[in-house]
Specification:
- The protein is of the alpha/beta class.
- The protein has a domain of 208 residues: Rossmann fold, CATH 3.40.50.
- The chain has a six-stranded parallel β-sheet with strand order 2-1-3-4-5-9, sandwiched between helices. A three-stranded mixed β-sheet has the order 6-8-10.
- Strand 1, helix 1 and strand 2 form a beta-alpha-beta unit.
- The chain is globular and about 60 Å long.
């Protein structure tokens, strides 16, 4: 579809910057990145004003309230409400304004805690999500329900993508809200510089995760915005599963930390396993991950070592 104006919510964020860059590399469309000071997406009047002011052809909704296991545990109400209300009102206002296409970003946290691996999109409703992620995951999943309902009743062309854990340069390295990879890198670098004997990590290291380099995720989202127009959700991932223990060993090696890893089993593990079936993304909009985990981790560590003071101030 031909787009003259594209709104990218969260366009100044970790993923959003890459998505905006990818759009600009492929298209002459004007990219509008709403600032919260001007358009608070948790307020319906502001969402309505944004759509009215811009009159977009496409809206890509990346803005989210999100963090790692600890942040999810500490902010279940905030993450549930803000993610639900932002997405729901945005879909409604896009429907009223007859926006041609809406691209919604869901989350892997919406899958059932004990979903069979690899996670297949059809299994999304087989059970309740892992408890620490459930309020966030269920809020995001309701946007899928609304997306499909609005397509059925109003003909809104709204698609729903579910990325796995993202990582890469410019990630959030804050000690309270970061996800596993930036948290590991931060701990390893600090331990190396202080000659610490150990780093302490949450859980027991047995859960598995899948990771997608942020530039690959941006390419997937733009591919889908151009090529995918169906109601069913689509996984975005690498298809590669690794245990947290193996991941920690890899990060320790890349960072050059020589101490030991101690596991704090009083802390939660999170979901036992995560690995996606990524065949639909390949078939529907020609997406396959290009950056391997070791290469991506090295790039992320390198960026952090060059920019850590700024990253800790802004995170």
């Amino acid at each position: 579809m031909k787009c003259n104006k594209i709104i990218v919510t969260g366009g100044n964020g970790f993923l959003g910057k890459r998505v905006v860059s990818e759009f600009r590399a492929r298209s002459s469309a004007e990219i509008i990145i709403p600032r919260r000071a001007a358009y608070d997406l948790t307020e319906q009047a502001a969402v309505r004003e944004l759509i009215h002011d811009v009159k977009p052809d496409m809206v890509v909704h990346l803005a989210a309230s999100v963090g790692g296991i600890g942040a999810n545990r500490d902010n279940p109400g905030k993450y549930c409400y803000e993610n639900l209300i932002m997405g729901s009102m945005l879909i409604e206002e896009c429907r009223k304004a007859s926006v041609s296409k809406v691209v919604l970003l869901g989350t892997i946290c919406s899958y059932p805690k004990f979903a069979p691996t690899p996670f297949i999109e059809d299994d999304l409703w087989l059970g309740y999500p892992e408890e620490t992620n459930a309020p966030y995951g269920l809020a995001k999943k309701m946007l899928l329900v609304q997306s499909q309902a609005y397509r059925q009743q109003y003909g809104l062309n709204s698609i729903y993508l579910m990325p796995v854990n993202l990582y890469g340069p410019e990630d959030n390295f804050d000690e309270h809200t970061s996800h596993v990879i930036p948290a590991l890198i931060r701990k390893c670098v600090a331990a190396k510089e202080t000659n610490a004997d150990e780093i302490v990590l949450w859980g027991d290291g047995t859960p598995t995760r899948e990771f997608l380099y942020v530039d690959d995720a941006a390419r997937a989202i733009v591919n889908a915005s151009e090529l995918y127009n169906e109601p069913m959700p689509v996984n975005l991932g690498s298809g590669h599963e690794i245990s947290i223990m193996e991941l920690a060993t890899l990060v320790v090696s890349i960072c050059g930390f020589n101490g030991c890893i101690t596991w704090d089993t009083s802390k939660p593990n999170g979901q036992p396993r995560r690995r996606l079936d990524v065949s639909k993304a390949r078939a529907k909009f020609d997406f396959e991950a290009q950056v391997g985990l070791k290469e991506g981790l090295q790039k992320t560590v390198n960026w952090y070592l060059r920019n850590r003071e700024a990253s800790l101030v802004t995170s």
